[in-house]
Amino acid sequence: METKKKADFDIGCGLISISVTIGSPRKEGRREESLMKRTAKAGEEAKNVKQARSSRLKGEEESTAQPMQEKQPSAREIAAAKAARARLYSKAQGQEREAAEIRLPTGQAPVPTVDVDIIPTEQLTPLDNVEANAQAAMQDLQSSDWAVACRGQTQLRRLAVFHPEECRPLLPQIIPLVLKSVKNLRSSLSKAAIMAVSDLCQTFGTELLPLLDVGGAAQPLKSLLSQLLLKAGSNDKRFVIEEVTRALQTMADCMDPTKLLQRLLPYAAHKNPKVRGKVAVSLAASASKMSAEQWAGHDRAALLRAAGRLVCDNTPEARDAAKRLIALLRDAFDASAHAASAGTDVATEGHGKENEAKDRNAAREISRK
Q1: Which of 39, 221, 298, 340, CA to CA, is 20 to 30 A from 55?
Q2: Residue 268 included in any domain
Q3: pLDDT tier at 4, thresholds 50, 70, 90
């Protein structure tokens, strides 16, 4: 039986109440005993669950391991499987090899590398059959294959250097074909065509000039001279630009400078500064070949105006060439002025001698009288 007792204590600053419940010792013992039984029973149940779970997992492992042990192949079966695998692999390799051999190529055929030898003028040789080779050269020049066109340019050079009489009637047909090759993007073909222009200029000189500048500066696509100047001022490969420079110098050396200057003057106002520079160089080179008689009959005012524009150009090459051209013009003006003054002195001296003769005659008549 439980009882409750309560007591109040005075600690000086207030009262403290303490209550105590006192139970039966016998009942407390029973409660502890029942708690221990329940705890032991719960432990046994947990132990049984754990044993059941472990036995179930062990049974599953044994059941899965037993089929695996039963499915293990023998050594003979393993050897047979390896042999079958080898036969299948070799057969597959053979089929792939046959397919590779039978497969047709796709796309464009590979372009073979072609080496074209461009022969210098000193190493050219005469043609054996001139007429047949001339016709063959014309056909080669019209070919779309650049290697064949290069061969045609070489044949044309041989024809121009060693057989000019047979080449002269073909010039109106040859120049447009050479122009087409000069404009070609293939650098080797363009160089071969420019070398052909140099050989033609050396052979025919001023006779070739009207054919070189068909259309003039107004129609640059039809003018070979215009295309040469554009090629010289382009960003093409170095050996092409060097060959164009030599061709322009050959023109200045082999053609009548007065007629060449007339053809070059319209290009002095070209929009491309590099072209103006090449034109200025060609003008100076042509002017340096002129004689006193040619200077006297040439329109020096137009040339002086062009030189005045070029000397203020933003291209160093144009300015330097314009300075040389102005120096040549000054020398020409000085020479003409000196010739004029010398002529005046000669005329004055002759007139004085005539007057002296008249005076002597008059004195003789007076003495006779």
Answers
A1: 39
A2: no
A3: low
pLDDT at residue 69, rounded to an integer: 52
302 and 342 within one domain: yes
3-state SS class at 17 = strand
Q: Given its phi and psi angles, is residue 109 left (phi above 0), alpha (psi -120 to 50 degrees) or beta? A: beta
Domain hosting residue 330, numbered range: 281-348
Are residues 245 and 121 located together in one domain of the fold? yes
* 222 falls within a domain: yes
> DSSP state, 206?
G
Kindly report the pTM of this predicted structure.
Answer: 0.63
> What are the tens digits of pLDDT across the range 125-138?
999 999 999 999 99
Same domain, 151 and 250: yes
Question: Residue 262's closest CA among 207, 225, 301, 303?
Answer: 303
| Cβ atoms 327, 367 nearer than 8 A | no
For tokens 């080449």, the residue is: 167
Whole-angstrom Cα distance, residue 264 to residue 35? 127
DSSP H or E run through 3: strand 3-10
Spatial neighbors of 90 by CB under 8 A, at least 6 apart, are none
Contact 188, 150 (CB under 8 A): yes
150-172, pLDDT tens digit by residue?
Answer: 999 999 999 999 999 999 999 99
Domain count, the chain: 2
